[in-house]
Amino acid sequence: MIAHLRGKLLVKHPNQAIVETGGVGYDITISVPTFSDLSDLGSEVALHIHTHVREDVIALYGFLRPSEKLLFEKLITVSGIGPKLAITILSGMAADEMVGAIRGNDLARLTRIPGIGKKTAERMVLELRDKLPEPGKTAPTPLSISAVEEDVVSALVNLGYQRVAAEKALGAASKNVSNKSFDALFRESLSAMSK
């Protein structure tokens, strides 16, 4: 699955971006905060991608910040919240504010977001309160990750490992391996995951 895209920004709208990578234009659904922070058309952008597969469509959802992608992925685990509503939710409130509102059981604040009623807000709080990190205590993300390293993380995630655990294993593998090929890094990361 696609987990990260870097390429030329061809089109941007408040809910859509088209990024060209290797001659292919990817249509990506984005939130309003991501739209606001995107650079000018024609510039290079890098987006963290959530690939959502249904029997009739493969949809890409893009985020500039890993924390926003993580929150999106948590939101779509809540019953009654699909990817489109999750994007609407992320467009209605900053990610840090939302985490604070969910952890603080602030239903009034959550129901101000378009598309969120009292029952959905209650489900969000009930199902996510203990799964979200405290604001400001998000997991550190690597500043730069090569294409090979991104492929290794993607392969581990496709095998069912959590992304954070996969990135941690890759960090350990990078220190132990002198040959930075996909095979060497993948084997060492997989070994680190099984310990």
Question: Can you tell me about this structure?
Answer:
Helix 7 packs across helix 8 and helix 7 crosses helix 9. The protein has helices at about 30-35, 65-75, 85-90, 95-105, 105-110, 120-130, 145-160, 165-175, 180-195; strands spanning about 5-15, 15-20, 25-30, 45-55, 60-65. The protein has about 200 residues and is α+β, with helices and mostly antiparallel strands. A hairpin with a 2-residue loop joins strand 1 (about 5-15) and strand 2 (about 15-20).
Write the layout of secondary structure elements.
Elements: E1 4-13, E2 16-21, E3 24-30, H1 32-37, E4 44-53, E5 58-63, H2 66-75, H3 83-92, H4 95-103, H5 107-110, H6 118-128, H7 147-158, H8 163-176, H9 182-193
Task: Please outline what is shown here.
The protein has 195 residues and is of the alpha+beta class. It contains nine helices and five strands, in the order βββαββαααααααα. The longest helix has 14 residues, at 163-176.
Please name the defining characteristics of this protein.
9 helices; 5-stranded mixed barrel; 5 strands; about 200 residues; alpha+beta; single chain
Our Rg estimate from Cα atoms comes to 18 Å
Strand content: 15-25%
Shape: globular
Order of SSEs: EEEHEEHHHHHHHH
- Let me know the average pLDDT: 83
Give the strand tally.
5
**Discrete helix count:** 9
Secondary-structure class: alpha+beta
Distance between the termini: 26 Å
Largest sheet: 5 strands, mixed, barrel
